[in-house]
Design brief:
globular; 15 strands; alpha/beta
C-alpha cells in the first residue's frame, strides 16, 4: 500500500476554501443548506465543497453523496483498458452476483460460515492437484489476501525450518539469507526486510532473459541460505524462471555438502497459466513434481479470474509448515487453526474462485489461457512487423526445433492454423517491447515515454519503465493481455499504437500537433523487398497486402 500523509484541514481551508472568490459582489462559496430534487440541486453543486479531510457535522442525502463520489471516480482510468496490471477486471455476471451475495461474510468466522470453509478446503485440494502434489503427501494451504501475504508465509515457513534445523545441531541462526533475481516483485524483497533475512538479489541480464541466472545461484548459496524464490512469470517480460534447473543445482549442492536448500515458487501470475497451457512451463517440471519445491503461491485475482482480494499458498505436505507457526484459535464458540498475517478478510473471493474452477473446468481454463497467449503473440508479431518496435518478451518466438518454415507475411504475423502455445517459447501472456535500434537512430527525437503518454490520452494505460538494475538503461513498454482482451479490442490497440507512433515520427520535435488524434484506421505496415521497413507518409502496407485487422 502507498503511504499517505495527513492533511491539515484547517490549513487547507484557510488556503483554498476561504479564498476571496466573488461573483457580483457576493461570495460564491457559503455554508448554507438547500433542499434539492436531484444530487445536482444540493448545496454541493456550486456553493459548498464536499468535505474531504474532516468528517462533517451534518450528513448529506445518500443520492447526493453517491453521485458526487461517482463523478470524482470518473477521473480514474477504465479498468478494461488498464493494460499495466495482471489483476483481472472482468468476471462473468453469475460470478459477480455470487460475490455480491456473499460480500458480508468474514473469512475469519469459520464456525459461523461452515459452507464457505468447506469450499475453501475444496479449492486447496483442487489447486494442489493442479500443481502436481504426489499421492501420499498431505498438502496443506490457505487463501490469503493476495500473493504478497502468501509469499511472506512461504518465506517465513522456510526461515523457521532453517532455524529449527540449525538449532537442533547447535549452529548459529543469526544470519539467514534468501536468494532471488533482481526481477523479483517487491513483495519478495519486503519479506526479507520485514522478517530480518538478508536478501541476496542476483543481477539479471539479457543473456539470462532478464530472469534469475542459475549460474549465479551456484555462486551465492551457502549454509545460511533458507531457500530460493523462483518466479513463474517475471513481471517485466513474462519469462518463466528455470525451476528444474535451479532444483538440479541444489541437488548437486546437497550431495556435495549435505545442506538441503528448498525452493518456494512464486507463481503469482503463472500458477493459473502454466498448468493449463499446452506450453506448460517450457520444461517438464516446475511444481510439486520436483521434490525440492516445498511451497507454491499464486494470485486468484490474476489469471485465476477473480476480482482483487484473493491469493493462495500451498505446501506440498504439512510437515513443511512448522507447527509452532500454526495458531489454534478459540473464537466465537468454535476452534480453528490458522496460519496467516491477517485475520478478518473477505470470503466472497474464495467462493468465486471455486465457482470458476467448477464452472470452467480444466478445458475452460485452457481455452482462456490459450486465447490470451494467442492474442499476445499476435500483438508481439504485429509490433515487430512495423520495424519500429522490438519485443523483449519471447512468447511469440517459435521453440527451437519446431518443424516447418513459416512463409509469407500474413502467416508470419497470424501464425499457422492449429498451432498452440506449445509451438512457442513458454511464458505469461505479456508483451514487453521497446523502440527498435533502427527507429531510435532514424528518429532520435521520439521518446519512448511519449508513446505511453499519448496512448493514455486515448485511454489505454501502458506503462513505460526501466528493466531491473544492471539493465535499467533499457526501458520497456509492457502490455498484459488478460481474458477481456478480445480480438476486436486488440485490433484497435494495434491501430492506436501505430497511429501514435506515426504522429510522433512526424512531430518528433514536440508541440501540440503530437496530441492531435489521427485516424487509426489508416495505420498499417509494409515490408520492402529486402525486408527493410520504410516510412512512406503516414500510410504503410505489407507487401502481400495484410490489413491492419490481421496485425
Amino acid at each position: 500500500m502507498p503511504l499517505a500523509r495527513h492533511v491539515d484541514p484547517e490549513e487547507l481551508v484557510e488556503r483554498l476554501h476561504d479564498a476571496h472568490l466573488t461573483e457580483g459582489g457576493r461570495h460564491i462559496r457559503k455554508l448554507t443548506t438547500t433542499s434539492h430534487l436531484t444530487p445536482y440541486g444540493s448545496k454541493y453543486a456550486s456553493e459548498v465543497t464536499v468535505p474531504k479531510y474532516r468528517i462533517p457535522e451534518d450528513g448529506a442525502p445518500a443520492d447526493t453523496v453517491y453521485q458526487l463520489i461517482r463523478d470524482e471516480l470518473d477521473l480514474d482510468g477504465r479498468p478494461n483498458l488498464n493494460l499495466a496490471s495482471f489483476v483481472g477486471t472482468y468476471m462473468e455476471p453469475n460470478a459477480t452476483q455470487l460475490m455480491t451475495e456473499n460480500l458480508s461474510k468474514n473469512f475469519a468466522d469459520n464456525d459461523e460460515y461452515p459452507a464457505m470453509m468447506a469450499i475453501h478446503e475444496r479449492c486447496i485440494s483442487i489447486i494442489a492437484q493442479l500443481w502436481g502434489v504426489n499421492k501420499g503427501e498431505k498438502a496443506v494451504g490457505t487463501a490469503t489476501t493476495g500473493s504478497s501475504e502468501a509469499i511472506h508465509l512461504g518465506g517465513l515457513a522456510m526461515k523457521r525450518r532453517w532455524q529449527e534445523h540449525r538449532r537442533a545441531k547447535g549452529l548459529d541462526t543469526s544470519n539467514p539469507n534468501i536468494i532471488m533475481g533482481a526481477n523479483a516483485q517487491v513483495a519478495l524483497e519486503k519479506f526479507a526486510r520485514y522478517f530480518d533475512v538478508e536478501a541476496r538479489i542476483l543481477p539479471v541480464s539479457k543473456e539470462s532473459n532478464y530472469r534469475l541466472d542459475p549460474e549465479l545461484v551456484k555462486k551465492n548459496i551457502d549454509e545460511n541460505t533458507i531457500g530460493i524464490f523462483v518466479i513463474m512469470g517475471s513481471t517485466y517480460t513474462g519469462h518463466y524462471e528455470p525451476v528444474e534447473e535451479v532444483s538440479m543445482i541444489l541437488d548437486e549442492y546437497q550431495e556435495r555438502t549435505g545442506i538441503d536448500i528448498p525452493i518456494h515458487v512464486d507463481a503469482a501470475s503463472g500458477g493459473f497459466v502454466a498448468p493449463f497451457t499446452h506450453a506448460g512451463a517450457g520444461g517438464p517440471k516446475w511444481n510439486f513434481q520436483l521434490p525440492r519445491v516445498k511451497s507454491i503461491n499464486t494470485s486468484g485475482h490474476k489469471y485465476g479470474l477473480v476480482y482483487a482480494g484473493v491469493g493462495w499458498i500451498i505446501w506440498r505436505d504439512e510437515s513443511y509448515l512448522p507447527q509452532h507457526l500454526i495458531f489454534e484459535l478459540h473464537y466465537l464458540g468454535g476452534t480453528e487453526k490458522s496460519f496467516a498475517l491477517n485475520f478478518s478478510r473477505p470470503g466472497a473471493q474464495v467462493i468465486v474462485q471455486y465457482y470458476n474452477l467448477i464452472h470452467l473446468g480444466f478445458k475452460g481454463y485452457r481455452e482462456i489461457m490459450e486465447n490470451c497467449l494467442t492474442n499476445a503473440r499476435l500483438l508481439s508479431k504485429s509490433l515487430e512487423a512495423t520495424g519500429w518496435y522490438t519485443c523483449v518478451s519471447e512468447i511469440h518466438k517459435p521453440k527451437s526445433g519446431v518443424s516447418g518454415v513459416i512463409t509469407g507475411a500474413k502467416q508470419a504475423v497470424s501464425g499457422s492454423k492449429g498451432e498452440t502455445s506449445a509451438d512457442y517459447v513458454a511464458g505469461l501472456p505479456v508483451v514487453s517491447f521497446r523502440l527498435s535500434d533502427g527507429f531510435a537512430k532514424e528518429f532520435p527525437g521520439v521518446k519512448q515515454e511519449s508513446v505511453s503518454l499519448l496512448m493514455r490520452a486515448r485511454q489505454w494505460i501502458i506503462p513505460n519503465y526501466a528493466l531491473p538494475p544492471t539493465e535499467n538503461e533499457t526501458e520497456i513498454l509492457r502490455i498484459v493481455v488478460r481474458e477481456s482482451m478480445s480480438l476486436d479490442l486488440l485490433d484497435r490497440l494495434i491501430s492506436d499504437l501505430v497511429s501514435v507512433t506515426q504522429t510522433l515520427m512526424e512531430n518528433q520535435d514536440g508541440g501540440v500537433a503530437a496530441l492531435q488524434h489521427r485516424d487509426a484506421g489508416h495505420a498499417s505496415i509494409q515490408y520492402d523487398a529486402k525486408q527493410r521497413r520504410t516510412v512512406e507518409g503516414v500510410v504503410k502496407r505489407l507487401q502481400d497486402g495484410i490489413h491492419r485487422s490481421v496485425c
